[in-house]
Design a protein that fits this description.
By secondary structure, the protein is an alpha/beta fold. The chain is built from three helices and seven strands, in the order E-H-E-E-H-E-H-E-E-E. It has a four-stranded mixed beta sheet, with helices on one face. The longest helix is centred in the middle third of the chain and has 13 residues, at 79-91.
Length: 128
């Protein structure tokens, strides 16, 4: 049987990227020494951070993609938590892409940008 298991992010600076994702509730330790790979298990999935240098050793012709080809999404416990999380990230100096709004599909929704330019959604169901 084949099943989803891990999402891998290629990042310029693992420690800087981890600092961002810790604001979203991931508990992950910094790499030890010059380690070029870190992973954490969250809600049954593994998420890994892979340095550009490591990826280029595995795939010498690798080039950073242009545009946004994927987006991670984090479920919040409440619509208020979406607003609080967005504000916390903005105050920490991270770029917002779309401020929180009530989406027509029934969720409080916002989009922020991680240190490598990936869009990250934060959302919660709106009360019925």
């Amino acid at each position: 049987m084949i099943r989803p298991d891990m999402i891998g992010l290629v990042v310029e600076d693992i420690k800087r990227s981890l600092a961002f994702y810790r604001h979203l509730g991931l508990s992950v330790e910094d790499p030890k020494g010059d380690e070029a790979f870190v992973e954490v298990k969250a809600n049954g999935y593994r998420i890994s951070w892979n340095s550009v240098d490591m990826v280029k050793k595995l795939e010498p012709n690798w080039v950073a993609p242009k545009g946004h080809r994927m987006e991670l999404a984090f479920l919040c416990d409440s619509p208020k938590e979406v607003d609080t999380t967005y504000s916390k990230l903005a105050k920490a100096g991270y770029q917002g892409h779309k401020e929180p709004w009530d989406a027509f599909w029934g969720q409080r929704y916002a989009v922020v940008v991680d240190p490598d330019g990936n869009h990250v959604s934060i959302f919660a169901p709106l009360p019925a």
